[in-house]
Amino acid sequence: MGPLVSRGPRPLGPLSFIVHTTFGPTTITLSVRRFKRVFISIGNSIDIAYGCGLKFAAVDAAFSKHSMYRDGCMHLLTTRDGNNKVLILAVAVCETESGDTYDWFAQQCIDAGIGRYLNKDAIIFSDRQKGLRNFHEAFAALVGRCFQHIIKNCRKAIQGSGETFEDKTAWLVQKAKTGPDYRKALADLRAQSGRAADYFEAIEAPDEVFQYLLNVKAAPTHGHKTSNIVECANGVFVPARYYTPYRMLNKILKWQGEQFFEREKELEKWLEKGHFLTKYAYDKFRIQVEIAKRTNYEVTPAGNRIFYVQDQSRPDAEQYEVNLDKPQCCDYLKEHQQPCRHLVCVFVKQDMLGPNLRRARQTLEQYWPKCFHAAKVKALYADRGVRLPQIYLGKFTGTDDERILPPVQRPARAGRPKKKRYRYKPKTVRDVERTRPDVFNPEYAAAIRYC
Fold first, then answer.
1. Which residues pair with 34 in a beta bridge?
2. Does 295 lie in the same domain as 262?
3. Could you tell me if 283 and 140 lie in one domain?
4. N or C: which end of the chain has fewer CB within 10 A?
């Protein structure tokens, strides 16, 4: 198992943390160090991402839920592998969420080697928090903004105006593939709310928001419009956020190690079924095949391995040029980095997915990126794990120079504690079986025979 990528003068068990401390009041003779920040990056996650990552990442922060460490904030950077599974690249605990903490977090990520993965061919999604600009500027990757957060901000901006709009109408504005489609969707939104349409039209940096402009830059968004790959991880780690920083990091690393083990087993079973692509790529391709099957596409060869594909059931259908030597077709190819329905038609007409296994495998190897090859992804997960830190539970026995005191926290707000809303939920037999799996008396098995 590879070690965690980390540095610092304070080794803790089989790994090292980057621990930043701050000196206490200068009025006392002895300098007292207090906990300030801690950073961890997972070396094996970075290696897997570099080998089979989707070049799509997201960054976000979430506040600590610890009863005493209330001001702390967990910073998280995640991506996905070729099977669309979440990889934790780096996590840090800082005293707050600000431009300074994001600047520090970005520098630690660069020093850990994440910059080689998040290069100019990648994209990093986030919300529109001002401090995140500092994080994005540290990487050469493209910038994407979470559209879900933008919709919420728009609703706040038009609140009290008497106007409203439907979410699906706003999403059509973001999902528009071309400029004319975008203007048509914006006109439909304006029919519902003129203020909302003005808000979206005047949005800062539109090339970071709308899909038709992201397609111009060939951003590999893979169908994502939000920073959900980090938001979902924040949701998974809610129980861990109730712990102190070291214990919280321990639980996050434990989760990632368990995922490594489960993913390797899943890929092994998937390969035994004879699949070449990962399940994620296989499902995406099946959708394109079904669309091509149900559309009256005509494929016209033009020589030099160039083909033209057009839907004959629509008189105004667009004609797409497919170049097999340099796959360029519709926006689906740019967005998902996988063959589209038009390439499927050419593959079928040219017998490139058959009639024998050897010819089909040649096509799969040539037109699908290696990150979608199941055997390659499985090989990257093989013999990899995540080492957990050893958390010392006993009394501190070191010298005063080695002591790190807890961070200074704001006092808790005075007043009545927040009410815990009670929601009645009927108890079921499954609840009992789950809470008491080791208690079972066979004598009671016949008690409900005649009930």
1. 22, 405
2. no
3. no
4. C
